[in-house]
Design brief:
The complex is a heterodimer. By secondary structure, chain A is mainly α. Chain A contains 2 helices and no strands. The N and C termini of chain A lie close together (9 Å). Chain B is mainly α. Chain B is built from 21 helices and 4 strands. In chain B, the strands form 2 sheets. Chain B has a two-stranded antiparallel sheet. The radius of gyration of chain B is 23 Å and the shape is globular. The two termini of chain B are 19 Å apart. At the A-B interface, helix 1 and helix 2 of A face helix 2, helix 3, strand 1 and helix 15 of B.
């Protein structure tokens, strides 16, 4: 239960920390590398949610 | 905005993320965060591989999903925190017992608590709280646990779309891009039928057809008042209280009718409150318990004053998104101030304002306890983090499907396969989404755009089909496993959830069938010309 809670909290934090990066990379900077990185971070957040 | 050419293979691929959600929720019984994440992965992979979405398009779609999630989650977090503070001060118990004492007859009590008060609770909070609070109250007035849980599950379902401070309603408005001043009143009109039928359903659960006959006058009169108020509040631009007020008004109307129509019973003891507790803290009276919602109603009324609206117009936040195109030629339109959060036109700032005023009042009258704020915050985080991850992943999945043209492909296939029968089935799609996720909001995110695109394909009103989707999701919450588990647990029926659900399903199916008939009549007979 505690492991699930930690994973969810980290996933939650990653999702919302990634939001500005995702926006700046894809809309502001339009930098393909940064955009790919932002998507990868979202993938990590989703992986943590999947591991719960 | 041309969709990829419709082929069976492409349609099947577009359906895979939805199928993953269905299988993980229903067959594997995964929670929303896990199932949402799985479906998100699948949507991103299929969107990139088969629908021509490049990394920029996918990143923009995900950012849009988070904009939309922020809009909805800010309502959920603020309303849940406010409720948790009031709950820690025993406010809901005081309010509920006061309601129960208003009428003497048990049939009237079940209508008041299971139909109107639970609807009011859904208006201010959601998340199974109406089921958790109202079900034990029904057992206090002598209803057996299983019927009590079913009464509340079915009875509060009319209030879900405009409940939780309007979060499901705002979501369907955002994903369908229909203007609120058009969608709100039509949605309210659509809800008149479920408001009345859910009242009769509660009466039927209590005492069969005889109870339905006996409750005809109170259900019809109260239901009419609640329906008119729901519509009027939407016309007035206050959908966030379009369950709160009608639920409350329903309690008052039932109380007045009970005094007029039922024999006077034994005098009932006054509601306790106002006197100091054992810990020296002043217990909440009904009015003090209700204070945050009085303030919220006042702030909502203030927010509708044109001068206030104009003065606050600059105080809004929303992100702009560019137009993007997939390699298959599907165009995701540019967005200005997407999912805009306005200081006076969004429920969250109003809820925060109501909370601050009320907490100051509680401190002033000595009803506050120092640890309440922190305990409520801890509970809110515990309740809202899993929900937030579930909503964020599911909304991002839905936006990836939207912006890569998968939703349009799905809709075209459904329109071609179902033809004119579609409005009849449309509310069941909403039920399915709610059953899978336990949330009318998530159901609207998943299927709102799909339903609208299907309606466009059939040349019928998108407003009516949007209303059918959300109303179906609303009624579907009566059988959502997440809520059934809560209802069963609070009255000691853990392990017998299947029994509660089996009792609730026929009511849900019947109510949604009536809703489907209404959607079909509205779409093809009465309002053919509607947008």
């Amino acid at each position: 239960m505690k492991r699930r809670s930690i994973l969810l909290n980290v996933s939650f934090a990653l999702i919302w920390l990634d939001f500005p990066l995702l926006y700046l990379a894809s809309v502001g900077q339009r930098d393909p590398m940064l955009t790919a990185l932002a998507l990868a971070v979202m993938g990590l957040a989703a992986t943590l949610a999947l591991a719960t | 905005m041309s969709a990829p050419s419709l082929t069976l293979e492409l349609w099947a691929l577009a359906f895979v993320p939805v199928l993953v959600l269905l299988v993980t929720f229903i067959a594997l019984r995964w929670g929303a965060p896990k199932a949402g994440a799985a479906a998100w992965f699948v949507a991103v992979a299929i969107g990139a591989t088969f629908f021509g979405g490049d990394t920029t398009l996918l990143a923009v779609a995900n950012a849009k999903g988070l904009s939309l999630s922020l809009f909805v989650l800010s309502i959920i977090w603020s309303s849940v925190y406010l409720y948790n503070v009031v709950e820690k001060l025993e406010g809901p118990r005081v309010i509920g017992l006061a309601m129960a004492r208003l009428v003497g007859d048990q049939l009237w009590q079940v209508l008041l608590i299971g139909w109107c008060f639970s609807g009011f609770l859904q208006g201010i909070t959601g998340f199974g709280v109406p089921v958790a609070v109202a079900t034990p109250l029904l057992t206090i007035v002598g209803v057996r646990p299983a019927p009590a849980a079913v009464m509340v599950l079915v009875g509060h379902s009319w209030a879900v779309t405009f409940g939780s401070m309007g979060s499901s309603y705002y979501t369907i408005q955002l994903v369908t891009r229909l203007p609120g001043e058009l969608l709100g009143p039509w949605m309210a009109l659509f809800f008149a039928l479920p408001i009345v039928t859910s009242g009769f359903a509660v009466a039927h659960i209590h005492g069969g057809v005889a109870a339905m006959r006996r409750s005809a006058v109170p259900v019809l009169v109260t239901g009419a008042v609640m329906s008119i108020l729901t519509w009027a509040l939407n016309i007035a631009g206050a959908p966030q209280i379009a369950s709160v007020f009608p639920g409350l008004a329903g309690c008052v109307v039932l109380w007045v009718l009970a005094r007029l129509l039922t024999p006077v019973g034994k005098p009932r003891p006054a509601v306790q409150g106002g006197a100091p507790n054992g810990d020296g803290r002043r217990a909440l009276s009904f009015n003090l318990a209700f204070l945050p919602y009085y303030v919220l109603i006042g702030l909502t009324a203030l927010s509708q004053i044109p001068a206030a609206k104009e003065a606050m117009q600059p105080y809004a936040w929303g992100l702009d998104y560019p137009e993007l195109r997939t390699t298959l030629g599907y165009v995701a339109a540019a967005e200005r101030a997407y999912a805009k959060i306005s200081l006076l036109n969004h429920p969250a700032p109003l809820i925060v304002g109501a909370a601050l005023v009320s907490f100051a009042a509680y401190i002033a009258v000595g009803a506050w306890r120092p640890q309440v704020g922190r305990a409520a915050a801890k509970l809110t985080v515990k309740q809202c983090v899993p929900t937030s991850v579930g909503i964020a992943t599911t909304v991002m999945m839905a936006l990836v499907m939207n912006d890569t043209g998968m939703t349009t492909t799905l809709a075209q296939g459904i329109a071609r396969a179902t033809g004119p029968v579609f409005p009849l089935l449309s509310p069941y799609v909403g039920v399915l989404g709610c059953f899978m996720t336990g949330s009318n909001t998530t159901s609207n995110v998943m299927f709102g755009a799909l339903q609208v695109e299907t309606a466009k394909g059939l040349g019928i009103s998108t407003v009516i089909i949007s209303a059918a989707q959300s109303a179906g999701g609303s009624l579907g919450s009566a059988i959502a496993p997440a809520k059934v588990l809560v209802g069963a647990a609070v009255v000691g029926l853990s392990g017998r959830e299947g029994e509660v659900m089996a009792r609730a399903i026929p009511y849900c199916v019947a109510l949604v069938l009536l809703l489907g008939l209404q959607a079909w009549l509205f779409a093809y007979v009465f309002f053919r010309g509607l947008t």
